[in-house]
Amino acid sequence: MAEPSKTHALLQVSGLHLNFGGLVVLNGISLEVGRGELLALIGPNGAGKTSVLNCISLLYRASRGRIVFEGEDLAGLPAHRAARRGIARTFQLGGLFPHLTVLENLLVGRHAHFRSNVVLDGIFWGRARANEIAQRAAAEEIIEFFELERYRGELVSKLPFGVQKVVGFARALAMEPRLLLLDEPSAGLNREAREDLSRFILRIKHEKGIGMIWVEHDMQMVADLADRIYVMDYGAYIADGEPQQVLADPRVVEIYLGSKGH
Amino acid sequence: MSIGGALLRLEQLEVVYQKVVTAIQGVSLEVAEGRIVALLGSNGAGKTTTLRAITGFLGIDDARVTDGRVWFEGRSIENQPPQLVARHGIAIVPERQKVFETLTVTENLEATVPRAGVTRAEQRRRIERVFEHFPRLHAARRRGAGYLSGGERQMLAIGAALLCTPRLLLVDELSQGLAPRIVENLLERLVALRKELGLTVLLVEQSAHVALQIADHGYIMENGRVVLDGTPQRLREHKDVQEFYLGQAGGGERRSYRDVKQYRRSRRWYG
User: Which residues of A touch B176 (CB under 8 A)?
Assistant: First the structure.
């Protein structure tokens, strides 16, 4: 995959500032993601990583700075518009509908692709019916992709936390986004499940060409999978670049990795 | 009943949800006084269910211990309600750093400190003690807990559990979602607490790498059963632990996450 050039970046974030009252959460964050590029976003707890994702998915309104997605400035758009533009995300704690089944959660993720018509939907006829069948087929494909077959009909609230995280990931992908924001997808997963997760991430990157911003604390995964790493602390830029170079950076070791490294 | 130095002992424990789903079956394990014991296992293996069986939190999910025993200091405590279990000296640090987000750090501790039979002065002393164990919490004592970093939240969750002056501390997923450096600090803190307070710790972890750093003994659960146990050294040498928990290839070197498997591997536990 070719390095994304400046002009072809999928997402360009420049000079992002975010304040909560007097508290400075983000202080001039600038980053870029290309198509099919996997950018890891790392930093200590409380550095503002999730806030960056919240700004890009428009859950937070940045105090200053620009967020340009596919050449279009997203400033001022409401969050559901970001979803329709092709930006999907996962949440640290799953963020699912606990009293719906796995399949139903995925169908909610497909909502942007439903074409509704009051009359036809009311009698469940013609196009409405074909549409329903198509959405169900798409959801089944996602279930297969994430190997969730055995959980299909189970209520999300009854699933182990790690499986819920995978369902959250699946629902984000069900939206058919071009940019995916992953908030600590590996938390709560053991080594084996992390290997599965790695496979999902690599397949999404290579087969679907989706750009990803990936908040992660597992530095082995980051070192093995990420194309580039962006490090932040206290809402500000610390370092960025290729994994090997960034993880060896003394400042990154000092603020994040600790004496034993990873 | 003699229990041979074990502070906590599970004996052939079986837990059934909604009268039909067997979550754990025949689980036996021992936590000796003053030890740090790790309980490892993949998602859905039954680790959290085991913790709930000890703490009495099964009832909220319509589950019960249907067979076997939970011995604590020679007393059988299965199916006792949580408030009674806590009084025996068992405290839990729940998964995902649960704290009262809208309260400050100090208020969190004040809300958690036991009142029954504990004088005001003693309550205050216990809270001060928590601040001594975690100076960072003292620095953040007036901040809303919702604004704490993940590491500080975990410190607060541990601190809140310590207020009950437990003899056995159960820790559910210490490292989850925390930066490597923070995890390292927390592990050191736990080891120090064990020494200073004579604590006994049962550590439930996804990350074998983290848990085996400080544990004296480890148990591995799969599909509701204990499939393997031993010293960290023995576990690290076991082929399945290497493959499924430590991510090592044949020669002991680390396997890259890029070499992802394309098939379901089979386990060889005891095989």
Answer: 187-188
Q: SS3 for A146?
A: coil
Nearest chain B residue (CA) to A202: B258
Q: Which residues 185-204 of A have a C-beta within 8 angstroms of B?
A: 187-196, 198-199, 202
What phi and psi values does residue A238 have, to the nearest 5 degrees?
Answer: -115, -50
Structural domain count of chain B: 2
Beta carbons of A183 and A50 less than 8 angstroms apart: yes
Intervals of chain A under pLDDT 70: 1-8, 112, 114-126, 259-262
Residue A160 to residue B260, Cβ atoms within 8 A? no
Residue B38 has pLDDT above 70, yes or no: yes
Torsion angle, alpha carbons of A91, A159, B31, B181, to 10:
-10
Q: Which residues of B touch A161 (CB under 8 A)?
A: 43, 95-96
**Superfamily of chain region A1-86+177-262:** P-loop containing nucleotide triphosphate hydrolases (3.40.50.300)
pTM score over 0.90: no
Q: In this complex, do B177 and A46 lie within 8 Å of one another by their Cβ atoms?
A: no
Q: ipTM beyond 0.85?
A: no
